Amino acid sequence: MKVLLASSEIVPYAKTGGLADVAGALPKALRRIGVEADCIMPLYRTVDRGQFPYAGPGFPIRVPLGHREEAGTVEETDGGDGVRAFLIRNDRYFDREFLYGNKDGDYVDNCERFTFFCRGVMEWILRSGRSYDIIHCNDWQTALIPAYVKTLYAAGAAFRGMGTVFTVHNLGYQGLFWNHDLPMTGLGWDLFTPQRLEFYGKLNLMKAGLVFADILTTVSATYSREIQTPEYGYGLEGVLYERREDLYGIVNGIDDEEWHPATDRFIAENFSAGDLRGKAACRRDLLAEFGLPDEGVPVLGFIGRLNAQKGSDLLDQIGVWLAGQRLRVVFLGSGERRYEESMEALGRKHPDRIAIRVAYDNALAHKIEAGADMFLMPSRYEPCGLNQIYSLKYGTVPIVRETGGLADTVTDADADPAGGTGFTFRRYDAEDLKDAIARALAAYADRPRWEAIVQRGMALDFSWDASAREYASLYGKALRKRGRTG
After folding, report:
1. Cα 14 from Cα 17, distance rounded (Å)
2. Which pLDDT tens digit goes with each residue over 276-331?
3. Cβ neighbours, 10 Å, residue 483
4. How many CB atoms lie within 10 A of CB 90?
5. d(CA 71, CA 50)
6. What is the pLDDT of residue 481?
7. Most CB atoms closer than 10 Å: which of 211, 229, 432, 459?
8. What are the counts of helices (DSSP H) followed by strands (DSSP E) for the chain?
9. CATH number of the domain bearing residue 77
């Protein structure tokens, strides 16, 4: 079976969130179980072209955009572990400082940019003679591909019988654009209906993937159920409910080579479940990195986008309370300007207790996971989440809201004393969040109990192999829907 994974970001080439981690790790895991997997993404300015040299001259493509064509090339580089990575180049669209927009909002031509990417993938397959059994698409930036497979390119030999899998990583971002962008995509007005691509008068690219893909997945079983409800469906719950028989939830794995405390190259000292001594050195290193005094109190970490989805409004509400607790707090993230400014103000007001780094810093993220005692994820919703899984792996007890993948991966230690791996709260409420943190602090004071919680979390297996086998099974389902065996 040959699979092409299409994503708008892939580790190690470009990353803004967990999508990139998944898109980077899954093809390698698929290769390990015998699936021939490649990946493709835009060639952004952030891709280190010295670290990832091209295999040869780029393959030229000409991409129809409405009544004109846009030229580009497809560059090939080594993705590691047998994975070939293909990068679609057009400097006018992708040679920019950020992937999707700046702090003031999304780029105004994002529909055009990612239409070029999606149709560029199709033109490259059509003209290069490459053949894939499955195209696995991810989020709205790639959602036009399943529509193209079944409409504009359906007659092409490369696409007859090709299966498509579409994974929703975050339904809150749908790729909504004004309806006048539809002709640019090449799709006809006959598809601009409530049953297809129309969404309250707008063009909804996410909807294209949900309607046309053979198989739909999302990144946890709980989230697959949540998005069929008005609270989490963002207006698409009806579409998802209609396709519920084709909708599956698979929890993301983690890359054990990148995220493992016994081998992590970014942390001060390696450690394992059998020998946790190195975690103390990592804790000291983390406090020194943030300039916080080490007074023997627990360290609470947060890594993520500073926006409403990640619970930044709750963090605003409990900031003063946090500063009054017997702990040290370290924040790493960036996002909406108002949350960045409020977090920075909190750090200035309590410089010996709270520190924030407004940035994306992979090395520092590893230091936080290794050096913190607790990790906070108060998300309004969380399709899967990776940081709580990293935290479990690194003996850093997660404090999470009971939603999506957080509910599927963290068990409350008070509700289940024998099996608990963290602390959870259900209502999206500041008081409930404070209660969960207070319960974690009480458990921390009981060292035998705390060490048992840590050990249970570190014993869990979140490797990619099991998830990769589930995806391979779904690829077979997609092929059977297209009349092929697999």
Report:
1. 9
2. 999 999 999 999 999 999 999 999 999 998 999 899 999 999 999 999 999 999 99
3. 9
4. 19
5. 24
6. 95
7. 211
8. 18, 20
9. 3.40.50.2000
3-state secondary structure of 48: coil
Reduced to 3 states, what is the DSSP secondary structure of residue 80? strand
The answer on 454 and 310 residing in a single domain is: yes
Residue 269 lies in a domain: no
Whether residue 210 sits in one domain with residue 103: yes
Rounded to an integer, what distance in angstroms lies between the CA atom of residue 74 and that of residue 129?
A: 13
**Count of CB atoms within 10 A of residue 131's CB?**
12
Residue closest to 396 by CA, chosen among 424, 422, 357: 422
**What is the full DSSP assignment across 271-333?**
-BTTB-HHHHHHHHHHHHHHT----S--EEEEES-BSTTTTHHHHHHHHHHHHTSSSEEEEEE
* Shared-domain flag, residues 232 and 319: no
**Residue 373: is its pLDDT beyond 60?**
yes
First-to-last alpha carbon distance for the chain, in angstroms, is 8
**Percentage of the residues of the chain whose pLDDT score is greater than 70:** 100
Which pLDDT belongs to residue 486?
57
Q: Are residues 214 and 332 in the same domain?
A: no
Whether residues 126 and 188 fall in one domain: yes
Domain that holds residue 102: 2-253+465-481
Measured between alpha carbons, how far is 25 from 7 in angstroms, rounded to an integer?
12
Categorize the per-residue pLDDT at 415 as very low, low, confident or very high, splitting at 50, 70 and 90. very high
What digits encode the pLDDT tens for the residues 160-211? 999 999 999 999 999 999 999 999 999 999 999 999 999 999 999 999 999 9
For 83, list phi and psi in degrees, rounded to 5. Answer: -80, 130
pLDDT digits (tens, 9 = 90+) for 117-163: 999 999 999 999 999 999 999 999 999 999 999 999 999 999 999 99
What is the helix (H) or strand (E) element at residue 393, kind and residue range?
helix 387-393
Q: Pick from 400, 32, 404, 473: which is nearest to 251 by CA?
A: 404
Which residues is 65 bridged to in the sheet?
A: 68
- CA dist 395 → 83, 94, 249, 282, 403 (Å): 31, 39, 26, 12, 22
CB-based contacts of 48: which residues, under 8 Å, 6+ apart?
13
Residue 180: how many CB atoms within 10 A of its CB?
9
Residue 270, SS3 per DSSP: coil
- Most distant CA pair in the chain, distance: 69
Average pLDDT over residues 403-422: 97
Q: Are residues 374 and 326 in the same domain?
A: yes
Q: At 372, which amino acid appears? A: A
